[in-house]
Specification:
The complex is a heterodimer of chains A (432) and B (94).
Chain A: E1 2-4, E2 7-10, H1 14-25, E3 30-33, E4 48-50, H2 62-65, E5 70-80, E6 85-91, E7 102-104, H3 107-120, E8 124-126, E9 131-137, E10 140-146, E11 152-154, E12 158-160, H4 167-171, E13 184-193, H5 196-203, E14 209-216, E15 224-230, E16 234-242, H6 243-246, H7 253-261, H8 264-270, E17 274-284, E18 295-296, E19 299-301, E20 310-311, E21 316-317, H9 319-339, H10 344-347, H11 349-356, H12 358-365, H13 369-372, H14 377-394, H15 404-414, H16 418-431
Parallel strand pairs in A: 1-11, 2-3, 2-12, 3-8, 5-14, 12-19
Antiparallel strand pairs in A: 4-7, 5-6, 5-7, 9-10, 10-11, 13-16, 13-17, 14-15, 15-16, 18-19, 20-21
Helix pairs in contact in A: 1-3, 1-9, 9-11, 14-15
Chain B: H1 8-11, E1 13-15, E2 22-24, H2 26-30, H3 36-40, E3 46-49, E4 54-57, H4 67-71, E5 77-80, E6 88-90
Antiparallel strand pairs in B: 1-6, 2-5, 3-4
Classes of the chains: A alpha/beta (432), B alpha+beta (94).
The structure holds flavin-adenine dinucleotide (FAD) and iron/sulfur cluster (SF4) (2 copies).
Residues 24, 28-29, 32, 34-37, 55, 72, 74, 76 of chain B line the site of one iron/sulfur cluster.
Chain lengths: 432, 94
């Protein structure tokens, strides 16, 4: 098979489909290549789909058009130890009316929907098409080959939206062979069957309201976090674990998750649930300093392939950045067609527009966060500190109470140490 | 509730390709004293055979997450790519 298009997009995830949609709307012929049997088949995430402002031009009533599970009104943050938990909860009425701020979704449904929208607008979606390599002529990328009897697709511009490992960007020489283990996190997730009414009761929700919970602690000291998100009638329970931290131990991801499911406060939330599906994926967690070359001759990189992910411990943003960068790459390709200049220079507009958008602005603002999260104290000593203080504040045991200042100082000394605490508060303030 | 990877095929679907998408150079693994692939792989595809002092790798239940690709410090792979189109893990919900 040999075919020619105006543009090729590798990967029909949120970045790829957003790019394809943008380009076909402007009249370009676009091949959208996906290795799965259908878009989304290979994809998992937490997850909360944050509002996709980039696509509002195409889907003004997004919440009536896209397939989602629940809209998020409640955000919980918990610190847990093996036997206790401390939670702050933000329940927000303003998030209960459209345009919603975030949704829980299933990737096999959502990604497929978005790709089909691109198809309706004119994109050529080729599934079961694993891209093998880029085709290079006179130093320029002019197409790709598929892992399928020598199939070859050509276009003056290729958008690499093939996710966290992006072999396309790598083969085009835009990113290093491998990122370090400190820059990648492995995520595992258990999808747990639970009746809607039970979820509503346990999480304090009505109608299609949803809750997201981020949980720090009880990960055997490994840098990482836990999340629980409410779908319509199932829960997503998962962990994000930094590889650099995990590799130094003999713990397994599923062992840690099993351990967590036995933690008494978590166990109460999961009681009666049944495992429906188990999945795993990497997440780029290196932040701004991990961003590869975004543009080459005839090629641009978008989404996870460009490491556009923000992980703060309070939130995980990825799809919104993927979608926005996809749209901007699509626009740069449209302009390149108008100018008939597909060189690195001709596509340089992409980087500029990213810098003007929230994508690179936010990546830059949170550039210190990955470093802050390299602090092991966050994942064991701080949860111990918070829960320990709460335990003593509430405990009635016939002994006279300490003043709050004394109690705090003593607990800080027992756990993190005063000097560390001050340094961490300063570091955290700068990073967030 | 517990995740028991011996039962992974009961809850996650696969369309296993006979031709593995990941291949190892056993000689390189033999000289590896880190073997992080064994504990880090979320699908337990790698195991260390203490008796014969070799790594056993089974690609059947591979979730295509990429962890082993990133974690192996010795680049022991003679092949590491995603499965051919249409093969491999197939998520239904998630
Ligand atoms: C556990 C976890 C939790 C997360 N939680 C959140 C969250 O709550 N909110 C949020 O916004 N983000 C979250 N993220 C991040 C988010 O999932 C990603 O940022 C987002 O999916 C990136 O989109 P993308 O289109 O760039 O890449 P992907 O979604 O990875 O899409 C890439 C596509 O390319 C295809 N592909 C790959 N290689 C090839 C090839 N060679 N040939 C053909 N096709 C190929 C893949 O099959 C896939 O469909 C989470 C991630 C993980 C792992
Ligand atoms: S795959 Fe890599 S990490 Fe695993 S045993 Fe072989 S050389 Fe070591
Ligand atoms: S890609 Fe992931 S699931 Fe597959 S063998 Fe490697 S670590 Fe295991």
């Amino acid at each position: 098979m040999k075919r020619t298009f105006d543009a090729i997009v590798v990967g029909a995830g949120p970045a790829g489909s957003s790019a394809a949609l943008t380009m076909v709307k402007a009249g370009l012929s676009v091949a959208l290549l996906e290795r799965g049997n259908f878009p989304g088949e290979k994809n998992m995430f937490g997850g909360v789909l944050h509002r996709l402002t980039a696509l509002e031009e195409y889907f003004p009533n997004f919440w009536e058009q896209a397939p989602w599970e629940r809209h998020i009104v409640k955000k919980n943050l918990s610190f847990i130890t093996p036997g206790s938990s401390f939670t702050v909860s933000f329940d927000n009425e303003a998030a209960d009316t459209p345009p919603y701020n975030g949704y829980t979704i299933f990737r096999p449904k959502f990604d497929n929907w978005l790709a089909q929208e691109a198809v309706k607008a004119g994109a050529t979606l080729l599934t079961r098409s694993t891209v093998d390599d880029v085709i290079r002529e006179n130093g320029k990328i002019v197409g790709v080959t598929l892992l399928r009897d020598g199939a070859e697709l050509r276009a003056p511009v290729v958008i690499a939206a093939d996710g966290v490992l992006s072999f396309t960007a790598k083969k085009a020489g835009l990113r290093q062979a491998k990122f370090s283990t400190a820059q990648q996190g492995v995520c595992i997730k258990a999808l747990i069957d639970m009746p809607k009414e039970v979820i509503d009761d346990r999480f304090g929700l009505v109608r299609e309201q949803g809750a997201s919970s981020e949980i720090v602690g009880n990960s055997s000291g490994i840098r990482g976090g836990t999340f629980i998100y409410t779908n319509y009638d199932s829960l997503s329970l998962g962990m994000v674990l930094e590889l650099g931290s995990l590799e130094k131990t003999d713990q397994t991801p599923y062992g840690l998750l099993n351990n967590l499911m036995d933690q008494p406060q978590i166990a109460k939330l999961l009681r009666g649930g049944k495992l429906l599906e188990y999945s795993a994926h990497l997440v780029p967690k290196g932040g701004y300093s991990m961003i590869p070359e975004l543009v080459g001759d005839g090629i641009m990189v978008a989404g996870d392939a460009a490491a556009f992910c923000i992980i703060t411990g309070l939130n995980l943003e990825g799809i919104n950045l993927a979608s926005q960068s996809g749209v901007l790459a699509g626009k740069a390709a449209i302009e390149a067609h108008q100018q008939q200049d597909f060189s690195k220079q001709g596509l340089a507009h992409y980087r500029k527009s990213l810098e003007e958008s929230f994508v690179l602005k936010d990546m830059k603002m949170y550039r210190r966060t990955p470093q802050m999260l390299h602090n092991d104290r966050i994942f064991s000593q701080y949860p111990e500190l918070v829960c320990g203080v709460m335990d003593e504040i509430y405990r009635i045991d016939g002994k006279p109470k300490e003043t709050m200042t004394k109690l705090l100082l003593r607990k800080v000394k027992e756990t993190v140490g005063l000097k560390n605490l001050l340094a961490d508060v300063y570091g955290g303030w700068r990073a967030l | 509730m517990k995740i028991n990877l011996d039962e992974i095929f009961d809850y996650t679907s696969f369309n296993v390709d006979r031709d593995p998408h990941i291949k190892l150079d056993e000689q390189i693994c033999k000289s590896c004293d880190q073997r992080s692939c064994v504990n880090c792989c979320p699908a337990a595809c790698y195991s260390w055979d203490e008796e014969n002092l070799k790594i056993t790798f089974v690609h059947d239940g591979c979730l295509e997450c990429g962890t082993c690709y990133v974690i192996c410090g010795k680049d022991a792979f003679t092949r590491w790519r995603y499965p051919r189109g249409g093969f491999g893990v197939s998520y239904r919900m998630t």
